[in-house]
Design a protein that fits this description.
The protein is an alpha/beta fold. The protein contains ten helices and 16 strands.
Length: 352
């Protein structure tokens, strides 16, 4: 798919802004706080149904407003005449003193469930905070896995939503078992649901990690180890007492983690900052290849001010893939960009 334009209304810092994109490459230049990352966040929202940086939906709604909309036109990369309109409506939960849905998805003006909306526009994001994937909390790495896989697998979207709901319900029941003494048998339905959906999530995550590890490794012998938390009847029984005491489900893919190694060295403990950067660069290039192979379509590549994080040699590596797919790049300073960037496509300058 090709992203033709995006229209932002009351989204983050934008009151109203229509941005046109080059079918090949668009460079957005501007100082910090000019709203560059906001544009990529809006595109990512269209891809995954979520923000890559906001904890709550209302953070994306312009301060003092009740509602924001992100609307985009996309077209088939092979047949540009086949256009589709994607729209996400965000609210603070109340519009005109009436209760309102926090988030709504529409395709060509017709409401869609998130499970049917996600996957219309696929993207791969590389932004500075990705460098914390190696050293930050496991939840960040699980979130990354979900961001990738919801875009390429509808069943993964369905299983993830069902699993997350099941975890919430099961934890409430565990609390009631502990505090009210209700029967443990009430867990049976949720146990079976979590085992079924959880195993699907685990299998797809494993397939993704295997594909990443099998990809070319131009920057070093990097490997990702998938530290999976398998969910089964035996394991739930094994942790039965601990779960009742804590009122928390202690096994399952919501406890998964990833570890990054260079040969046998754990990069989170023994890798230099430079090695960690290269591992993430390898990961993102492998992700790009994975999405293309899995969907038979090149995803949109979003590069948020990453040239300032890379040295000259590795900026050249990124430059090699620009133009292979539609790419949107942000930067604070044109001097970070490789020579000849003006010939890549559209250049948009933003001011504060």
């Amino acid at each position: 798919m090709v992203l033709s334009n995006i229209d932002l209304i009351n989204f983050r810092s934008y009151k109203k802004r229509l941005i046109q994109f080059d079918p090949h490459t668009t460079v957005i230049i501007g100082p910090n706080t000019a709203g560059k990352t906001n544009v990529l966040e809006a595109i990512f929202l269209l891809s995954t149904g979520k923000s890559f940086r906001a904890d709550q939906t209302l953070e994306m709604v312009k301060e003092g407003k009740e509602m924001a909309t992100v609307t985009a036109k996309i077209s088939d990369s092979k047949n540009r005449s086949e256009e589709k309109k994607l729209e996400v409506r965000l609210t603070t939960g109340e519009v005109a003193e009436q209760k309102a849905p926090i988030k709504r998805f529409l395709v060509n003006g017709i409401p869609r469930r998130s499970i049917d909306f996600i996957g219309n526009l696929r993207s791969v994001l590389f932004w500075p905070e990705d460098l914390e994937l190696i050293t930050d909390s496991p939840s960040l790495r699980r979130r990354y896995l979900d961001f990738v896989l919801v875009q390429v697998d509808r069943e993964y979207r369905r299983s993830l939503a069902s699993y997350e709901k099941g975890i919430r319900q099961r934890n409430r029941l565990l609390e009631r078992i502990r505090d009210e003494g209700i029967s443990h048998n009430q867990l049976i339905f949720w146990d079976q649901l979590l085992i079924k959906t959880g195993n699907y999530l685990t299998d797809k995550r494993m397939q993704f990690i295997d594909a990443i590890n099998a990809n070319v490794k131009p920057f070093g012998d990097f490997v990702i180890f998938y530290d999976k938390s398998v969910i089964s009847e035996n394991r739930l029984e094994q942790y039965k007492n601990e779960e009742m005491l804590s009122a928390t489900t202690l096994v399952g893919p919501h406890r998964d983690d990833l570890q990054f190694f260079e040969k046998s060295r754990d990069l989170s403990k023994y890798g230099s900052r430079g090695e960690q950067r290269l591992a993430i660069l390898w990961l993102k290039l492998a992700e790009l290849a994975y999405v293309e192979k899995d969907t038979n379509e090149m995803p949109l590549l979003l590069l948020d001010d990453i040239f300032s994080e890379l040295d000259h040699e590795h900026r050249k590596e990124i430059s090699k893939i620009i133009g292979r797919q539609q790419t949107i790049i942000t930067t604070t300073d044109m001097h970070f960009l490789p020579k000849g960037y003006e010939k890549w496509g559209e250049v948009i300058e933003l001011s504060k």
